Every structure is written in structure tokens, then in C-alpha cells.
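I am still getting used to C-alpha cells and would like to learn alongside you. Would you supply a protein for us yourself, any chain you care to pick? Start from the sequence, derive the C-alpha cells from it, and show both lines together. Go ahead whenever you are ready, and we will take it from there.
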Amino acid sequence: MKVVVIGAGEVGYNIAKVMSDKNDVIVIDKDSERAARANELDVQVMVGNGANVDLLKELPAFDLFVAVSSNDEINILSCLAAKTISQNKAKTIARVSNPDYIKKPVSQKPEVGVDVMVCPELSLASEIAELLYIRGAVDVEVFAEGKVEMIEFIISESNQLIGKSFKELRLNQVCTVGAILRESDVIIPNGDSYLMPDDHIIVIVKTDDVEKVEALFSPEAESSKKRKKRILLIGCGDVGFYLANMIDKDPWIDLKIIEQNEDRCLEVVDLLPHSLILKGDATDIDLLKEEGAGNSDIVVSVTDSDEKNLLCGLMAKHFGAKKIIGRTTHPDYIPVFEMVGIDIALSTRNATINEVLRLTLGTSIETLRALPQAQSEILEYLVTEQSKIVGKPVKELHFPSDAIISMIVRDGDPIIPTGDLEILPNDRVIVFSKPEAYSKLNKLFK
């Protein structure tokens, strides 16, 4: 596949890095330093304005056009130009941050030449919001228009499920276990599998059954459900405001925000009437103590500075905060953050990369969520009448051993699959898969 990436910042660089293994990639950026860094990859680099039509006309034919510069308007204009130049043959993806352009993390804007518009900041805020509501979860992703959720839990030493086989527990009556992460091993479970302390378990569950799954895998969180949740939010930039706006009206959340920029405080104070907004520097130890960081159920640090997010998170942890969520602009830092004491580290990069991968893996894929910690992905396929699996029961599909059907959504209703369940046209099939199974899966769903 021929891929053009506009913008060689952190997001663009990592997209080019991921795509360059099996695709011909051209990276365009007007900043010579960023272009020089991208030149270290196995890609072709051009220095220039990604919205310059004359420059784009010089490019060889391309299949995918990804505009992820820091300027929303350049990203949209370059996609529109790419559509015209390719005579609507190329798929386009634009990254935007301005809420005037986008109201949900991922949407389609064909009227301006954008097949997929992604807001990484809104996507990250949505993910954090899900984590706030599902107690004990360390990762959450929503599928099938909100009807199905992927949740990752860490099994505590006191969990009563430890040592019992899955066929004994009959977990498939409540959810599907996609994988168990045990130290460096990724286990696709079967009936004889069992849980051990500190295992990370990834489950696929109906949204209506999330509380049942919480009670199974994180029972220690049950005691805090009957009172308001105290949340301290550090930073009210794009990500912080998106998150605050999602939870501001929740009567079960007591939200306190610390923002260093006085103009920003004045800008958002009327937009967040139920939150307490404080002007101050959250790296000030006395301020964190005075504002009760140690008594917080969750501290979320989402400033634009990785160092500040790490420092504030560690100080709040030291003071006694129960859970720390920290943002990093460098996805490679995520394991470092979590190694030194941040409970959950997240990056804005992943939303855009997930959409790029979705468009390159296959036309039948509706949603894709990469799980780097599991070296796997969760794929949502839309079954067509031409799909090879139509009319066959699950037990006869000859499914790859590195993949598992986790949930089927039929006419809006999520169904936990059994061996006798037949796949029908228009079913949405959610699959947990390792990379080795992609080619076989695409043939089955093609």
C-alpha cells in the first residue's frame, strides 16, 4: 500500500514507523528538524507544506492519506486536496483537536474530503472517563456503538477466583475472556485455564453486565460504590476540559481541577458549573496537600508536560491517593510511568494509529483497538452476505488458534457466542486476535 503522512510530529512519526514495515510511506513536514528525524525511518521524506496542492500533485499515486500535523485546517485542506488529486480513490484520515470540527472521538466527514476524522484528545478523555466509572479497570474500550466493552483488570491476591479453572467458574455466562497477561506471556484461554495473582485479564462484556464483571474481577472496589467519588484533575487543556465536561454534571462525582493558566481558568469556569476550579501549580507540594490530593479516589494528570504529569502523579500517590492516571505524549514512556508508580499511563497517539491500522487491514473491519501490552488487537468485523463464515456455526469455523470470537452483536443485541450459534449477515463479530491470525481472519470475513 502507498501511504502519505502529513506531519512528522510524535503522532506522524509513529504512524510512519508502524506503516513502514509493509508499505511504501512518504512523510511530508515543513519543519526540517522533524523531517530529519523521520528520515531515520525506512520512508521517503519531503520538506514542505502538506496543504500545498502543487506539492501533492508531484506525489506518486497513493492509497492512504493521513494528515496529522498540529494544524487542524491544514489537515482538513490537505485531505480535501488528496481526494481531488486521487479522484476519490484514496482513503483519507485527518487529525483534529478543535471541538467545532468534531463531537465524538472518531467520525466521518465526507463533505470535506475526510473519510475518518480523529480527535486524539477527545478519544483519550473518553477512555479516561470510562476508567473513572469502572472501578478496578486499568483499560477500557467501547465497541458496537456502546453495547459491548473491553475491560482489563488486575487480579489481586485476595480474589476468590484464583486457581479455579474457567470451565468450573462458567465465566462464559457473563463475559468472554479474551486473554490473560501473565508476566511476559500472552495466554489465549480455554476451559482449563485459571487465574493467578497479578494476572492482567482482558474481558469482553455486554455493557449492561459491566457491574457483574466488576464484582467478579475487582470485588475490593465494591465498598466505595455507595459514596461520591473524589476526583482531582490536574490540567484543563484540551484533554482536561473534554474529560471535565463529560463528568461535571454527575452527582456522584466531586470534581476538583487545578489549572496553572489564569486565562484558561476564567475561560472554563462558567462551562463547568459543578466543578471547583483552582488556579495554581500542581507541582507545589503545599497546594497538593491543602487540596486533599491524598484523600482523592483518583488523581488524573493530563497537562501537556510528561514530566509534570509524572511528578504530580507520584506526589499524589505518596500522599495517599488511591489511583493515579497520567498522560504521556510519548507512548514509549507508558511502561516507564507504570513501573515507577503511575497506575495507568495513557497516550493520545493510539486513537489515530488504530484508525490507520483499521483502514489498512481490511474493508470489513469496523473498529480496531491495538493492545500493545498483549501484543494483540481487538477487531470488530461486519459480516456481509459474501463472507465465508455466513450460515456456519461457530464450532465449524476452523478459527485460527491465535484468535477468539469474543462477542456477536445481532440486531443491536450482544450475544456471548456458543459453539452452536450460526453467523448471519450484518452480524458484528468482535474478535480478540494476535497478529499471526490477521490474514486468516480477513479471508473468513471477506
